Amino acid sequence: MNPDAASPGPLLEQYRPYLWELAHQQLGRLHSKLEPSDVVQQTLLEALPMLDRLRECTDGQRRAILQSILKHNVTDAARMFTAARRDVDRERPLRPTPEGSSANAPAWLAADGSTPSQHAQRAELAAKLVEAMVRMLADERTAVELKYLHGCTVAEIALRLGRTEDAVGGLLRRGLRRLRELMKE
């Protein structure tokens, strides 16, 4: 048996120094709060489910995929450390009762009716979605994420990306088309 087939280590480990250098460059002011090696480790862990596909890729394709995952991890880390801290004034009950409490929350949270197999199907679909989004062009992926995952308007996305609203509309159309194609594969 090929040792590389049994262990993900050799294939992914060779990219650790490359990813560390990228993380070191991208972390900027977060160096005091987060080590590049932590972001690299998270990136390699997230690449494990794609290992079979990564084995079929060229070195350049692997680097691009790993770089994209790393970039998202750095972005997530930045959001985590710069997010607004808890503000009690902004808190609202989950589902208010006439008395204004959320005492009935455990009942409606537990009653979603999902079976373990439905949870597994959703998890598989989520993994497939992540893999598909990693394969999208960066601007299209960012536009789709901002619109459909973060609820941003086209105008807000245009401001963030430094593009016109028409250009963002094109990115969204092409991005969704590409995402559908990748999800069918």
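Next protein, fold it too.
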Amino acid sequence: MTVSWLRFEWDLHRLPTTEIEIPNSYIVRAARKEDEDVIQKVTASAFSMDTGWGDIQKLIMEKILVNVGLPFEKDGNGQCIVLQHGSRIIGSSALCMDAAAEYHLTTGPCILHEYRSRGLGSLLLQASLGALREAGLKRAFGIARDRSAVARFIYPKFEGSAQPWTPDFVAAPKIAA
């Protein structure tokens, strides 16, 4: 079985000027170092609950969790945005701020399963793209497996366009002999 990937691209100068309205009980903010463990758990949970990643999740989870930690490294060129409901972190998005990076949305918007289908992934994507634009990037890229929820419902927003992509990491499911 071949795993098909897509690389989405956004022209950051063409982002909508109006932001998605945030309900009063939610907060979008930059992550702090003390949030890292919770963000790791939110990210792992989000990927484990998306059936589009099921057969390769174990193969890529280590890489994903490394990406989550990059914004918290001393010399890291990243940022992480969190979405809170009250005091609980329910979503996160790790970003690479290097304009030359192959992809900038290193995890994509990750929302806990019980908070999905409320527009919160779109909210987190818009905040992520806005942060990349504020960092001076002109274009942003994100990768996704073609059958994943993010590729079908979230990344096409804000005029995201997709092209087939081949990862530089191994992500093919193993077939039992």
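About the second fold: The domain at 19-138 is CATH 3.40.630.30 (Aminopeptidase).
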